[in-house]
Design goal:
This protein has 362 residues and is α/β, with parallel strands linked by helices. It folds into two domains: 144 residues, Rossmann fold, CATH 3.40.50; 134 residues, Rossmann fold, CATH 3.40.50.2020. It starts with a helix and ends in a 15-residue tail after the last helix.
């Protein structure tokens, strides 16, 4: 039997490992390997008593293509370290290709320069390359341009077909829905959903929106001390101070089901505030659809107490604990598209099939 297993490895020439040994995180890996009909690679990932990460790969990987599945639980930094250590262990064991399957790419919100910060997402991309990764499969990157941070190929799969299917099958009377962007920055994604479902579009803007955009360009940095040598400096034209209007909804949501779409739902305060306003404007049901359900801190309680009727996310991030606290949270399984991506990459097939009807703005 072990000989036939070995033959099978030699024939298929690829292995799938999980960079995480906790049950919640290996769940997605198990779903993917079941769909592919392969065994999950034998490895142990654990934290030593001094909190150092240790990875033991229990089988030979020489000359093989290895896929490492890493779902990011609450402790994001440990997860990154696990991925780095495992990639490096495989690299030094002479694996031919090491492909990271990282459905939710962490630090993806830190992809723009803020004051005297840094673009952490780019740093992470460099670290993964250094550790030995040669390719990444991910889902709904926070900004598509993040792909350019990597020195190797990135397949940025989309969850929208699964979420659209959920709307059509699970939202009663969805033809009476309207797609809502909770801020102008989410309008492109919302437009893409609205057009494919042939529904109307509403956009919210104004004060309740989180004002991180103001922090992005360093305008709140301390002013430089005026040069005392008498040089007046350049006289720049005085810019008008930006002032957000009170929150407004562009588009009529009265008597409609409102479906807010976004890529990540983490801090839920702004979603809760948006739901309140949509209720005031006459929406009778409120859904939130997002790819990555991080749902940090007391998000489940806030959702449970809010005007939101249902939060629909995919299983790119484990969130079983949050579901126990809040029955309004529903999960859509995306393991199928991840498994298909692995199969196609290994067989050298085109990925275009996985992007049918995906618009640029998705």
């Amino acid at each position: 039997d072990s000989q036939s297993a070995r033959m099978n490895v030699a024939k298929s020439g690829y292995r799938v490992f999980s960079a995480n040994s906790t049950a919640a995180c290996t769940e997605l890996a198990k779903k993917i390997t079941e769909r592919l009909g392969v065994e999950l690679g034998k490895s142990v990932v654990y934290q030593e008593s001094n909190r150092e990460t240790r990875v033991d790969v229990k089988e030979s990987v020489r000359g093989q293509t290895i896929f490492i599945i890493q779902t990011i639980p609450r402790d994001v930094n440990t997860a990154i370290m696990e991925l780095l250590v495992m990639a490096y262990a495989l690299k030094t064991s002479c694996a031919k290709n090491i492909i990271g399957v990282i459905p939710y790419f962490p630090y993806s919100k830190q992809c723009k320069m803020r004051k005297r910060g840094s673009i952490v997402c780019k740093l992470l991309a460099s670290m993964l390359a250094k550790a030995g990764l040669t390719h990444i499969i991910t889902m709904d990157l926070h900004q598509k341009e993040i792909q350019g941070f990597f020195s190797f190929p990135v397949d940025n799969l989309r969850a929208s077909p699964f979420l659209l299917q959920y709307i059509q099958e699970e939202v009663p009377d969805y033809r009476n829905a309207i797609i809502v962007a909770k801020s102008p920055s989410a309008a492109k994604r919302a437009q893409s959903y609205a057009e494919r479902l042939r529904l109307g579009l509403a956009v919210m803007h104004g004060e309740a929106q989180c004002s991180e955009s103001d922090m992005a360009d360093g305008r709140h940095s301390p002013p430089c001390v005026r040069n005392t040598s008498g040089h007046p400096g350049l006289e720049l034209p005085l810019m008008m101070a930006k002032e957000k209007p009170p929150i407004t909804v562009v588009g009529d949501v009265g008597g409609r089901i409102a479906i807010i779409v976004d890529d990540i739902i983490d801090d839920v305060e702004d979603f809760v505030a948006a739901a309140e306003i949509l209720k005031e404007r006459g929406a009778y049901k409120i859904y939130i659809m997002a790819t990555h359900g991080l749902l940090s801190a007391d998000a489940p309680r806030l959702i449970e107490e809010s005007a939101i009727d249902e939060v629909v996310v995919t299983n790119t991030v484990p969130h079983e604990v949050q579901k126990l606290q809040c029955p309004k949270i529903k999960t859509v399984d995306v393991s199928m598209i991840l498994a298909e991506a692995i199969r196609r990459i290994h067989n050298g097939e085109s990925m275009a099939y996985l992007f049918r009807n995906i618009t640029v703005d998705d």
